[in-house]
């Protein structure tokens, strides 16, 4: 199974809402990532988990809170977002943090109203 | 810091060959990867070069010159379905660093 799954596919939330994005992989990968992607831009790294521990936080605002409950799951908790946070949120995994081959999920299209 | 440069847009005719270039400036370098992303889709891995030379995978080939800090992706026998964005990405001792992407449009 070389698939990374993400739920939900689409999410619309108000600026006062709290929601969570979920990501799952069963490839035994030890590194998992959250990216934010705006239209016509490259994926922008947000967080990296390596062996279930947060190893990189790219100065992401605290209204985004990642969580790695186990080696297969990655969550992104959202609270008090701004309209400019509307984007495609991609989850990815790889064998290790420095691996050149990352497997991406289909993403969650987030709209903040 | 790291920087990658690739053309923002390329247009080519169906059945033709197109080359997408990528130049990079990095401190520490392991290799160059290429990813494809269709509109509304997720990036998917295409190829990786750690050593100088050409790697071929079907209609796609990728080349690396470490001494020139340069690589390219070559797409042969272009098909309409190849219309997508293509990202080069450098492997360092950190997660991948992506270039800004090249949007390829294949026309009939």
Main sheet record of chain A: 7 strands, mixed
SSE sequence of chain B, one letter per element = EEEEEEEEEEE
Coarse morphology of chain B? globular
Residue-averaged pLDDT of chain A? 95
What is the alpha-carbon Rg of chain A in Å? 13 Å
N to C succession of SSEs of chain A: EEEEEEEEEEE
Largest sheet of chain B: 6 strands, mixed
Count of separate DSSP helical elements of chain B: 0
Mean pLDDT reading of chain B: 94
Distance between the amino and carboxyl termini of chain B: 41 Å
Q: What Rg of chain B, in angstroms, do the CA atoms define?
A: 13 Å
Number of H/I helices of chain A: 0
Q: Can you give the helix content of chain A as a percent range?
A: under 10%
Strand content of chain A: over 45%
Assembly context of the chains: heterodimer
Low-confidence stretches of chain B: none
Q: Would you kindly provide a written description of the structure presented here, covering whatever features stand out?
A:
The complex is a heterodimer of chains A (113) and B (108). Chain A is 0% helix and 57% strand. Chain A is an all-beta fold and 113 residues long. In chain A, strand 9 and strand 10 form a beta hairpin. With 108 residues, chain B is mainly β. Chain B has no helices and eleven strands. Chain B has strands at 3-5, 9-13, 18-25, 31-37, 44-49, 53-57, 60-65, 70-75, 84-91, 97-98, 102-107. In chain B, a hairpin with a 4-residue loop joins strand 7 (60-65) and strand 8. The chains are: A mainly beta (113), B mainly beta (108). Chain A binds chain B through residues 31, 33, 40-43, 45, 48, 56, 90, 97-107, and chain B through 30-31, 33, 41-45, 48, 50, 85, 87, 89, 91-96, 98-101, 103.
Summarize the topology.
The complex is a heterodimer of chains A (113) and B (108).
Chain A: E1 4-7, E2 10-13, E3 18-25, E4 31-37, E5 44-50, E6 53-57, E7 64-70, E8 73-79, E9 87-94, E10 103-104, E11 108-112
Parallel strand pairs in A: 2-11
Antiparallel strand pairs in A: 1-3, 3-8, 4-5, 4-9, 5-6, 7-8, 9-10, 9-11
Chain B: E1 3-5, E2 9-13, E3 18-25, E4 31-37, E5 44-49, E6 53-57, E7 60-65, E8 70-75, E9 84-91, E10 97-98, E11 102-107
Parallel strand pairs in B: 2-11
Antiparallel strand pairs in B: 1-3, 3-8, 4-5, 4-9, 6-7, 7-8, 9-10, 9-11
């Amino acid at each position: 199974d070389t698939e990374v799954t993400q739920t939900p596919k689409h999410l619309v939330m108000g600026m006062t809402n709290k929601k969570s994005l979920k990501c799952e992989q069963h490839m035994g990968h030890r590194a998992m990532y959250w990216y934010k992607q705006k239209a016509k831009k490259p994926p922008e790294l947000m967080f990296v988990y390596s062996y279930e521990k947060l190893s990189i936080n790219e100065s992401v605002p605290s209204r985004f809170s990642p969580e790695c409950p186990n080696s297969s799951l990655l969550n992104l908790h959202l609270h008090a977002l701004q309209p400019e946070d509307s984007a495609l949120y991609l989850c990815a995994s790889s064998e290790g943090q420095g691996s050149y081959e990352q497997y991406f999920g289909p993403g969650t299209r987030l709209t903040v109203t | 810091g790291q920087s990658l440069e690739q053309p923002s847009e390329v247009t080519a005719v169906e059945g033709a060959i197109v080359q997408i270039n990528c130049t990079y400036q990095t401190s520490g370098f392991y290799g160059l990867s290429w990813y494809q992303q269709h509109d509304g889709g997720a990036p998917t891995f295409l190829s990786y070069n750690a050593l100088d030379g050409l790697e071929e995978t079907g209609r796609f080939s990728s080349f690396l010159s470490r001494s020139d800090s340069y690589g390219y992706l070559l797409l042969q026998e272009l098909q309409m379905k190849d219309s997508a964005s293509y990202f080069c990405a450098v492997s360092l001792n950190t997660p991948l660093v992506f270039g800004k992407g090249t949007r390829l449009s294949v026309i009939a």
